[in-house]
Amino acid sequence: MRIAIPRELQPGENRVPVTPDVAKKLVRMGAELLVEASMGVGAGFTDAEYTEAGATIVADRKELFSSADLLLRLNKPSVDEIELMQRGCIHISYLDPFNERELIDAFKAAGVTSISMEMIPRTTRSQKMDALSSQANLAGYVMVMKAANHLPRIFPMMMTPAGTLKPANVFVIGAGVAGLQAIATAKRLGAKVTAFDTRPVVAEQVQSLGAKFLEIDLGETGETAGGYAKELTPEQVEIQRQAQKDIIAKSDVVITTAQVFGRKPPVLVTQDMIEGMQPGSVIVDMAAETGGNVEGSRPGDVVEWCGVTIIGTGNWASEVARDASQMYSSNLFNLVEDNWCEEKKAFEVNFEDDILPGCIITHDGEVTNETIKNIME
Ligand code: NAD
Description:
Largest sheet: 8 strands, mixed
CATH superfamily of the largest domain: NAD(P)-binding Rossmann-like Domain
Protein name: proton-translocating NAD(P)(+) transhydrogenase
Mean pLDDT: 96
Strand content: 15-25%
Bound molecules: nicotinamide-adenine-dinucleotide
Number of domains: 2
Shape: globular
Oligomer: single chain
Strand order of the largest sheet: 3-2-1-4-5-6-18-19
CATH class of the largest domain: Alpha Beta
InterPro entries: Ala_DH/PNT_CS2, AlaDH/PNT_N, AlaDH/PNT_NAD(H)-bd, NAD(P)-bd_dom_sf
Number of helices: 13
CATH topology of the largest domain: Rossmann fold
Helix content: 25-40%
Family: Belongs to the AlaDH/PNT family.
Function: The transhydrogenation between NADH and NADP is coupled to respiration and ATP hydrolysis and functions as a proton pump across the membrane.
Distance between the termini: 34 Å
EC number: 7.1.1.1
């Protein structure tokens, strides 16, 4: 099977989908590996490292797309790229399938099997393929680093002959994978951390990291069978906003990571709350690119409101591209290896598998994913 790895063209993207180590493993499995020239540069990998791993470097991007049986990448393709692919080709990447009707139509028309990394189910067996989690984990770390860089204070308490500096107060909204890593990172730096999440089960995890859990009575919230939060009612969102107001005013740093899978993120920090914060405070809005948890945050940018810095730069994991590439690449490899037929030396699409069918969006000219099919109708 001919596996192709194109260069990522999205501005600000430094991660790469396949590292030289994983390239070597794919070649060892019997794949013919084609890598676009300079594909690894963003994360510091050279063409020579891929050649050494057994890959062939291809300069012509169009040729790469049209000759591939399997394409491995990070970001979604363009419609033009889909049109270059052969019928029966398999494309694995992030796809944002809930919002990409045009792309899904293009995959369908081209007869390409599209597999979405966002749709890897949250089971024990699929954890090694879970790119949302591996990248969110790094995002949690990066968000704290960014906040620390912008804050005109330090995180830890410092007792010196020149006086005592109090530890910074950090409030984390949403304690999923990214939020928990943000809590752990801020704690390691010595901050006083409080967190809130709508899933009550998270309280214990927050406390085990040495942070305080903010109790808010929202009534029934629950979580889905897949381990995701359920969307709050507008009334519950309002209760949450009011209950967080005080702690936000007292925080030096607020980090928001609240999301409900497949939905627009809730707006949890409003302008009047920002106005109540001390000038110099910092807010990091992880959800800025998908609608925002924070009023006034701007996707891809850092803005200021009443002296408060609001960071919405996004693509957080790309800031630590080397580690992020290693993790994503490993997630991809585990998915490929799990579906690899030794005999045919090829990735096999098996609709009887317990993981794969849920991640397949289109196959053989049809939208096969039930959730996405319902949205498309
Ligand atoms: P996510 O990125 O979809 O959401 C982020 C967090 O926001 C979640 O914890 C959610 O509860 C929270 N949230 C939603 N609305 C909120 C609101 N109004 N206020 C505050 N918080 C709000 O989720 P995630 O980080 O990818 O994962 C969530 C959980 O799923 C994890 O903590 C874990 O328990 C579970 N998980 C399981 C597996 C597995 O079993 N393989 C893998 C990854 C995650």
